[in-house]
Amino acid sequence: MLRARDIVRRDALTGGEIVDRVVLDHGDRHRRRVAMRGVGGLAFLLDLPTATVLEDGDALVLEDGRLVWVEAAPERLLEIRAASEHALRRLIWHIGNRHIPAEIAADAVFIAQDHVLVEMVRGLGGSAEPVTRPFRPEGGAYAGGHGHHHGHGHD
Protein backbone atom coordinates (compact mmCIF):
# COMPACT_ATOMS: atom_id res chain seq x y z
CA MET A 1 0.00 0.00 0.00
CA LEU A 2 1.17 3.52 -0.79
CA ARG A 3 2.49 5.27 2.35
CA ALA A 4 2.60 8.85 3.61
CA ARG A 5 5.57 9.17 5.97
CA ASP A 6 6.02 12.91 6.17
CA ILE A 7 4.09 16.19 6.50
CA VAL A 8 4.66 19.57 4.93
CA ARG A 9 3.13 22.22 7.16
CA ARG A 10 0.84 24.74 5.49
CA ASP A 11 3.26 27.60 6.15
CA ALA A 12 6.10 25.67 4.44
CA LEU A 13 4.12 24.37 1.46
CA THR A 14 5.67 25.86 -1.67
CA GLY A 15 4.54 23.50 -4.39
CA GLY A 16 4.14 19.90 -5.36
CA GLU A 17 1.45 17.86 -7.04
CA ILE A 18 -1.64 17.63 -4.83
CA VAL A 19 -3.42 14.47 -5.97
CA ASP A 20 -6.21 14.17 -3.40
CA ARG A 21 -7.45 15.52 -0.08
CA VAL A 22 -8.58 14.09 3.23
CA VAL A 23 -11.26 15.85 5.26
CA LEU A 24 -10.83 15.07 8.96
CA ASP A 25 -12.42 16.27 12.17
CA HIS A 26 -10.34 17.39 15.14
CA GLY A 27 -10.10 13.90 16.65
CA ASP A 28 -9.12 12.27 13.37
CA ARG A 29 -6.37 14.86 12.76
CA HIS A 30 -4.29 13.45 15.68
CA ARG A 31 -2.71 10.38 14.16
CA ARG A 32 0.41 8.29 13.72
CA ARG A 33 -0.59 5.27 11.68
CA VAL A 34 -3.92 4.64 9.99
CA ALA A 35 -5.27 3.60 6.60
CA MET A 36 -6.84 6.57 4.82
CA ARG A 37 -8.86 7.17 1.70
CA GLY A 38 -8.95 10.59 0.08
CA VAL A 39 -12.11 12.29 -1.13
CA GLY A 40 -11.04 11.40 -4.67
CA GLY A 41 -10.56 7.73 -3.75
CA LEU A 42 -6.79 7.50 -3.29
CA ALA A 43 -6.05 4.85 -0.65
CA PHE A 44 -2.83 5.14 1.38
CA LEU A 45 -1.35 4.38 4.77
CA LEU A 46 -0.46 7.30 7.01
CA ASP A 47 2.73 6.02 8.66
CA LEU A 48 4.38 8.76 10.75
CA PRO A 49 7.20 8.17 13.24
CA THR A 50 5.17 9.71 16.10
CA ALA A 51 1.56 10.69 16.76
CA THR A 52 1.09 14.10 15.19
CA VAL A 53 -1.64 16.70 14.91
CA LEU A 54 -2.44 17.32 11.26
CA GLU A 55 -3.45 20.92 10.74
CA ASP A 56 -5.90 22.34 8.22
CA GLY A 57 -3.85 23.17 5.12
CA ASP A 58 -1.00 20.73 5.77
CA ALA A 59 0.00 18.22 3.10
CA LEU A 60 0.89 14.56 3.56
CA VAL A 61 3.87 13.51 1.47
CA LEU A 62 3.38 10.19 -0.27
CA GLU A 63 6.43 8.00 -0.81
CA ASP A 64 6.35 8.87 -4.54
CA GLY A 65 6.54 12.61 -3.72
CA ARG A 66 2.94 13.50 -4.50
CA LEU A 67 0.88 15.32 -1.88
CA VAL A 68 -2.47 14.79 -0.16
CA TRP A 69 -4.06 17.97 1.19
CA VAL A 70 -5.40 17.93 4.78
CA GLU A 71 -8.66 19.79 5.34
CA ALA A 72 -10.39 20.35 8.68
CA ALA A 73 -13.94 19.04 8.52
CA PRO A 74 -16.83 21.19 9.71
CA GLU A 75 -17.92 20.15 13.21
CA ARG A 76 -20.75 21.04 15.55
CA LEU A 77 -19.25 23.50 18.03
CA LEU A 78 -20.22 26.18 20.50
CA GLU A 79 -19.28 29.77 19.74
CA ILE A 80 -18.77 31.53 23.06
CA ARG A 81 -18.86 35.31 23.30
CA ALA A 82 -18.98 37.89 26.06
CA ALA A 83 -20.00 41.53 26.43
CA SER A 84 -16.42 42.74 26.99
CA GLU A 85 -12.83 41.64 26.51
CA HIS A 86 -12.46 41.19 30.27
CA ALA A 87 -15.61 39.05 30.45
CA LEU A 88 -14.35 36.88 27.57
CA ARG A 89 -10.99 36.39 29.31
CA ARG A 90 -12.86 35.31 32.43
CA LEU A 91 -14.85 32.76 30.40
CA ILE A 92 -11.63 31.50 28.79
CA TRP A 93 -10.16 30.97 32.26
CA HIS A 94 -13.20 28.92 33.35
CA ILE A 95 -13.16 26.88 30.13
CA GLY A 96 -9.42 26.29 30.50
CA ASN A 97 -10.00 25.08 34.03
CA ARG A 98 -12.05 22.25 32.48
CA HIS A 99 -9.02 21.15 30.37
CA ILE A 100 -11.00 20.80 27.15
CA PRO A 101 -9.79 21.65 23.64
CA ALA A 102 -10.60 25.27 22.77
CA GLU A 103 -9.99 27.48 19.76
CA ILE A 104 -9.40 31.06 20.85
CA ALA A 105 -10.27 33.77 18.33
CA ALA A 106 -10.02 37.54 18.77
CA ASP A 107 -13.58 37.94 20.03
CA ALA A 108 -14.86 34.39 20.62
CA VAL A 109 -13.91 30.93 21.83
CA PHE A 110 -14.96 27.72 20.10
CA ILE A 111 -15.40 24.41 21.95
CA ALA A 112 -17.10 21.09 21.30
CA GLN A 113 -20.79 21.06 22.12
CA ASP A 114 -21.43 20.41 25.82
CA HIS A 115 -24.72 21.26 27.54
CA VAL A 116 -23.03 21.61 30.95
CA LEU A 117 -20.61 24.22 29.59
CA VAL A 118 -23.47 26.07 27.88
CA GLU A 119 -25.09 26.49 31.30
CA MET A 120 -21.80 27.53 32.90
CA VAL A 121 -21.07 30.14 30.19
CA ARG A 122 -24.57 31.59 30.32
CA GLY A 123 -24.48 31.59 34.13
CA LEU A 124 -21.32 33.71 33.91
CA GLY A 125 -23.02 36.20 31.57
CA GLY A 126 -21.69 34.93 28.25
CA SER A 127 -23.42 33.53 25.20
CA ALA A 128 -22.94 30.04 23.80
CA GLU A 129 -24.45 29.44 20.38
CA PRO A 130 -24.20 26.32 18.23
CA VAL A 131 -22.22 26.71 14.99
CA THR A 132 -20.84 24.35 12.37
CA ARG A 133 -17.28 25.09 11.25
CA PRO A 134 -13.80 23.54 11.22
CA PHE A 135 -12.32 23.16 14.72
CA ARG A 136 -8.72 24.30 15.17
CA PRO A 137 -8.06 24.18 18.93
CA GLU A 138 -4.92 25.40 20.63
CA GLY A 139 -2.20 22.77 20.86
CA GLY A 140 -1.39 23.38 24.51
CA ALA A 141 1.78 24.48 26.24
CA TYR A 142 3.35 21.04 25.90
CA ALA A 143 2.22 20.18 22.37
CA GLY A 144 5.67 20.75 20.87
CA GLY A 145 4.45 22.82 17.95
CA HIS A 146 1.56 20.47 17.10
CA GLY A 147 3.92 17.58 16.40
CA HIS A 148 6.15 19.60 14.11
CA HIS A 149 7.61 17.23 11.55
CA HIS A 150 8.54 17.88 7.97
CA GLY A 151 11.85 16.29 7.25
CA HIS A 152 14.53 18.85 8.03
CA GLY A 153 16.76 19.70 10.95
CA HIS A 154 16.65 22.87 13.00
CA ASP A 155 19.60 24.93 14.22
Automatic annotation (TrEMBL):
The record's subcellular locations are: Cytoplasm
Q: Is the keyword Cytoplasm assigned to this protein?
A: yes
Q: Where is the UreE urease accessory N-terminal domain?
A: 3-68
Q: Where is the composition biased (Basic residues)?
A: 146-155
Q: Provide this UniProt record's keywords sorted from A to Z.
A: Chaperone, Cytoplasm, Nickel
Main location per UniProt? cytoplasm
CDD domains from the entry? UreE
Q: Which InterPro entries match?
A: UreE, UreE_C_dom, UreE_N, UreE_N_sf
Q: Where is this region: Disordered?
A: 135-155
Top-rank taxon of the source lineage equals: Bacteria
Function statement = Involved in urease metallocenter assembly. Binds nickel. Probably functions as a nickel donor during metallocenter assembly.
Q: Which family does it belong to?
A: Belongs to the UreE family.
What name has this protein been given in UniProt? Urease accessory protein UreE
Q: To which species is this protein native?
A: Methylobacterium jeotgali
Q: Which gene encodes it?
A: ureE1
